[in-house]
Amino acid sequence: MTLVHLRAFCSVVEKGSFRSAARQLGVAQSTLTQSIQSLEKELGVILLARSNQGINLTPAGESFLTRARSITMDCDRALQDIQQWKGEPEGQIALGVTAEPLAELLMPVFSSFTRKFPKVQVHVASGSTKMLIEKIRDGRLDFVMCPLAPNVTDIDLTIERLYSSDASIIARKGHPQAQARSVRELTDCQWISVRPAGVVGGAENRLIELFRAEGLPPPKIAITADSLLEILHIVSESDYLTIEPRMLPGMKLFSSSLITIPIREPLASRDVCLISRRSSPFTQVTQELTSMLISYSRLVHRAKG
């Protein structure tokens, strides 16, 4: 098994066809097919199921993909580290971020980082906490910044807790219950939340816990969505309510359409964290970016405190 075999396998999965993968890798399609067949023969399992409808991963292929991606990306990071000794740092950083740390940390730091490292390309992925952590584990991202409940730990992850994020009930401007001061006044409202993902401290879990703590019937969760942007768009155009970070309605993008409803009952806070794989050391430039983000976070939140 060689790195060429692993890159061939990952490329076919990513592109969804041998033809597109061969084009991406700059090799003949027959050469790529031979690489996959050689890999499957060595492993003694079928990794890819071929049919008229396309290519699908077998269960063995799904398991192997996580390791293959991790190995190829670690090799790419090793090459980037070596290249940095030859002159001006180059390469790529792939990071994941949710809406709050994107606005609070990443945007203010971006300009300083890109001035210092003009040849480094930064790719930013968005998504839910669960989705981003899955991408960390399978090696697709170098690090993520997202919220976690204070008691969450994972043996395979390094978790740097940056600051505590307060939540709030968010509604459109002019909402009929904008003057409510207790969750009891909101029992007849309908709610929208990120699709349940099994993440401790997730928005839907906090909403259910809030109603349970007050001895109320379960909230009427009418809609779930995959992304925060979808949720906030729906909230801004309807009477649905949601629980999300308190700072969001103050952002320029949402300040003209969203408000918070300041109920007196406490909402569970979460920690915005910087998370990476424990087994995968950062490249020099990735270490520089994470250090800048951590320093900026401490500076800003020390000043707020």
Q: What would you note in describing this structure?
A:
With 305 residues, the protein is α/β, with parallel strands linked by helices. Helices cover 42% and strands 23% of the residues. It folds into 3 domains: 3-81, Winged helix-like DNA-binding domain superfamily/Winged helix DNA-binding domain (Arc Repressor Mutant, subunit A, Orthogonal Bundle), CATH 1.10.10; 88-164 and 271-304, 3-Layer(aba) Sandwich (D-Maltodextrin-Binding Protein, domain 2); 167-268, 3-Layer(aba) Sandwich (D-Maltodextrin-Binding Protein, domain 2). The chain has a 5-stranded mixed sheet with strand order 4-3-5-12-6, sandwiched between helices. Strand 8 (190-194), helix 7 (203-213) and strand 9 (220-225) form a beta-alpha-beta unit. Helix 2 packs across helix 3 (29-43).
Give a short overview.
This protein has helices at 3-15, 18-25, 29-43, 59-83, 99-116, 129-137, 203-213, 228-236, 284-304, and strands at residues 48-51, 54-57, 91-97, 120-126, 143-148, 157-165, 167-172, 190-194, 220-225, 242-245, 258-261, 270-277. With 305 residues, it is an alpha/beta fold. It has three domains: 3-81, Arc Repressor Mutant, subunit A (Orthogonal Bundle); 88-164 and 271-304, Periplasmic binding protein-like II (D-Maltodextrin-Binding Protein, domain 2), CATH 3.40.190.10; 167-268, D-Maltodextrin-Binding Protein, domain 2 (3-Layer(aba) Sandwich), CATH 3.40.190.10.
